[in-house]
């Protein structure tokens, strides 16, 4: 009855201010709502309970619906990406293996002088594999992966971002080793003092930095990875905490060839000669990994479109009757899928890399 009378469709935000006349004082009401929350969310939070059947101390004061959101939406139980799925980026893979994966696998060796930084920044154009690297780190280090977009913290969770951040770091610390991937981290740790910078976003930023500070000094096995397409917007405090900063550039010609082959081979569609593949790679200078994926997708529709043009019904179409994907399909696809990153932008990344990036 308390829930249905006083709550606002299950949203705790307005509960404490409920003015229903049920004869209960505010503290009792809050306690009851909290208890009801725990009871109703018990099942999905089960995995957070310790062997003693209790919720760990540090999670007890956090709102169950936020813990639930972290467990269900932000925590990825199966990131399912391996190093071998990522084309190129050898430099980044080498740095990350040494700086992150080994320490997560062997915390006993990586302490004292060898203790690793807890913050890693991946910066570069969109669609170049930053998120993939984050997932691969978690996969290779057998760590729990948490993915959150910082812009959703500032837009979707207005006024509640701080609490969600606390819940996120709380759950991560109960699921160590953990990798927290914060996409578009610039929108959270930006140096821009926008005119309307709200008190709430300032508080959110402070809370975030406090949480980072917390696991940086302890023995916790939590790594924070920030990803951004706008590194120049990060402020000094953010740079200080994200000690290793890796530039994730556009894929090289070899990496583009690898993406084409890998995607088509997975579907048993790869029949291109080396000359044709080389030619496509020449034509795709400046394409990101994500652009390449879209290009391959579009090209692989070529044989299907052609069959349908010949009057065959989609329901009668036999897979074995379809021709393989050709360079002509790629040439048509190139008209549709254009590169998404401009040369100008690349210059900005390279400049920032020279100034702040970890070059070796
Ligand atoms: P970012 O986080 O840098 O914006 P993502 O990691 O989300 O980019 O990549 C988007 C998609 O583009 C991936 O799911 C993948 O299909 C493709 N992609 C991007 N970079 C690579 C790469 N280096 N190797 C293989 N696929 C890639």
Question: Outline of this structure?
Answer:
By secondary structure, the protein is α/β, with parallel strands linked by helices.
What do the pLDDT scores average to? Answer: 82
SS element count, helices? 15
The molecules bound to the chains, other than polymers, are: adenosine-5'-diphosphate
The gyration radius over C-alpha positions equals 25 Å
| Uncertain spans | 1-20
Q: In whole angstroms, how far apart are the ends?
A: 62 Å
**What shape does the CA trace take?**
globular
Query: What is the string of SSEs from the N terminus onward?
Result: HHHEHEHEHHEHEHEHHHHHH
Count of extended strands: 6
Residue share in helix: 40-55%
Give a verbal description of the structure.
The model is unreliable at 1-20 (pLDDT under 50). The chain is α/β, with parallel strands linked by helices and 360 residues long. Helices cover 48% and strands 8% of the residues. The longest helix is centred in the middle third of the chain and has 19 residues, at 199-217. Strand 4 (178-183), helix 8 (199-217) and strand 5 (222-228) form a beta-alpha-beta unit. It binds adenosine-5'-diphosphate (ADP). Residues 86-89, 126-132, 227, 251, 255, 259, 289-290, 293 line the site of adenosine-5'-diphosphate (ADP). Adenosine-5'-diphosphate binds at residues 86-89, 126-132, 227, 251, 255, 259, 289-290, 293.
């Amino acid at each position: 009855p308390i829930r249905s009378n006083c709550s606002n469709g299950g949203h705790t935000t307005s509960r404490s201010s409920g003015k229903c006349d049920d004869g209960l004082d505010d503290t009792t009401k809050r306690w009851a709502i909290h208890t009801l929350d725990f009871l109703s969310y018990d099942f999905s939070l089960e995995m957070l309970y310790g062997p003693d059947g209790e919720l760990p101390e540090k999670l007890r004061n956090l709102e169950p619906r936020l813990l639930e959101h972290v467990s269900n939406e932000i925590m990825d139980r199966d990131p399912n990406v391996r190093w071998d799925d990522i084309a190129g980026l050898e430099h980044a893979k080498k740095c990350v293996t040494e700086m992150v994966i080994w320490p997560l696998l062997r915390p006993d060796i990586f302490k004292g002088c060898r203790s690793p930084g807890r913050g890693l920044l991946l910066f570069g154009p969109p669609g170049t594999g930053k998120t993939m690297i984050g997932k691969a780190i978690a996969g290779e280090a057998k760590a729990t992966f948490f993915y959150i977009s910082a812009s959703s913290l500032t837009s979707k969770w207005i006024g509640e971002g701080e609490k969600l951040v606390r819940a996120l770091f709380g759950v991560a610390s109960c699921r160590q080793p953990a990798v927290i991937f914060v996409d578009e981290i610039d929108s959270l740790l930006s140096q821009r003092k926008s005119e309307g910078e709200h008190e709430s976003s300032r508080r959110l930023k402070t809370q975030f930095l406090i949480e980072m500070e917390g696991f940086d000094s302890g023995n916790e096995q939590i790594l924070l990875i920030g990803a951004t397409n706008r590194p120049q917007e990060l402020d000094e405090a953010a740079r200080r905490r994200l000690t290793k900063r890796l530039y994730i550039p556009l894929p090289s010609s070899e990496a583009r060839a690898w993406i084409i082959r890998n995607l088509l081979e997975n579907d048993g569609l790869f029949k291109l000669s080396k000359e044709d593949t080389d030619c496509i790679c020449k034509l795709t200078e400046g394409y990101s990994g994500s652009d390449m994926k879209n290009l391959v997708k579009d090209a692989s529709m070529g044989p299907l479109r052609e069959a349908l043009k010949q009057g065959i019904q989609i329901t009668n179409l036999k897979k074995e009757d379809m021709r393989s994907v050709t360079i002509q399909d790629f040439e048509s696809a190139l008209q549709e899928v254009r590169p998404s990153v401009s040369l100008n932008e690349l210059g900005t990344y390279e400049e920032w890399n020279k100034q702040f990036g970890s070059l070796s």
